[in-house]
C-alpha cells in the first residue's frame, strides 16, 4: 500500500534550484518526471551529479511522488545467524517468484542497535530476536518479541531510527509482546503500537508517533482479551488483531484506528458450523483489503468494516498435508502468494494461479528465510523520522 502523492513534487527551495541550468538540455519538469520513475538505488547515486539533483532527490515531496510511481517490490525476511552472531535481512525481487528466487537474494546486515545480541550469552539470544512487525511505504518496522525494542528502517536508502524505550507497566511480566505499525493519512504521520500483557486478560497499550521522542498510553485492549500473535495487520488506517481469551479466538476482529486512537469490532466471516482454532487463523492484506486465513481457505473483506463483504477467494484442495498460515501478496493477474506450514513445523511459500488451478512451491537459498514470515514492501525514499 502506498500513500497518495502531492500535486507538486518539490518544495520552494528545490523549485528555486531548478531555475539554474540543469546538467542536461531537458526541461526541468521532464527531468523530474524521469527521475521519479527510477529505482531508489540509482537516485541515491544521482544525488552526487550536481547540487540541483541532490536538492531535488532529497526533497520530501519528491519522495512522495516517487513512492506513488514506484513499481519495484521486494519480498523481505529477517533471521538470526548463530554463526555470524547477528541478524540478517534477506530481500528478493518480488518478480523473481516467477523465475528463480533461489539465486536472486540480497542480504543486508540489520542496523546496529543498543541491544545487540553480542551483549548477551548465546543461550539467551532467543530473547533478542528481531521479527518484522510490518512493512509500509518502503519502511520496515522491526521489534523484539520479549522486550520493547523497536527499530524503523528504510533499507532502500540505508536510514534507520531506534525508537525511545517506553516505560513498562508496573506489573508487566515477561511474555510475547504484540506490535503494530502503520500510517495515519489524515495527520500524515507514522505510528507504532505496542501491547503489554501485565496480568491475566489485562493489557497496557502504548503508541509512538515517528518524529517524536516519547510514547503515550492509550485505552487498554478491549473486552479483557489479548491480541493473538506478535503483530497486528495494518489496513485502511487501522491496526487489526484477532482477540484471544480463555485459550480461544473470539468471533470478531479488534481494529485500532491510528487517527482517533480508539477501537472498534469487526465481525469475522461466517464459517458455518466450523469453529476454527487459534493456530488456524491469521490476518493479512491483499490489494489494500483486509484478508483472513482460516485453515485451508482465504477470505477477503472487499469493503473494510462491512461483514457482508467477506468473500472466500481460495480454498486449498491441492494438498491436505499443509495448512495455510498467511496471505502475502496478490499479483495483478490474481495469482496468490501464500505462506503454508507442513505438520505445523516446516514453513513454505506457495504460489497459486486461479486461472489454471495450479499451485507450486517456492524454493529459497536459505531455509532460515522463513524463520519469520516474509513481508512484501515497495522501494521508496521515505524517511519520516528525519
Gross morphology is globular
From the helix content, strand content and strand pairing, which structural class follows? mainly beta
Widest β-sheet, arrangement of strands: 3-2-1-27
With helices defined by DSSP (H or I, 4 residues minimum), what is the helix count? Answer: 5
Structural Rg: 22 Å
Distance between the termini: 22 Å
Number of strands: 27
Average of the residue pLDDT scores? 83
Which residues sit in consecutive blocks of at least 5 with pLDDT less than 50? 3-10, 13-19, 115-127
How many strands, what sense, and barrel or not for the largest sheet? Answer: 4 strands, antiparallel
Query: Helix fraction?
Result: under 10%
Task: Describe the overall structure.
The chain has about 375 residues and is mainly beta. Helices cover about 10% and strands about 40% of the residues. It has five helices and 27 strands. A four-stranded antiparallel sheet has the order 3-2-1-27, with no helix packed on it. A hairpin with a 4-residue loop joins strand 6 (about 150-155) and strand 7 (about 160). The protein is globular. It starts with 11 loop residues before the first helix and ends in an 8-residue tail after the last strand. Residues about 5-10, about 15-20 and about 115-125 have low confidence and may be disordered.
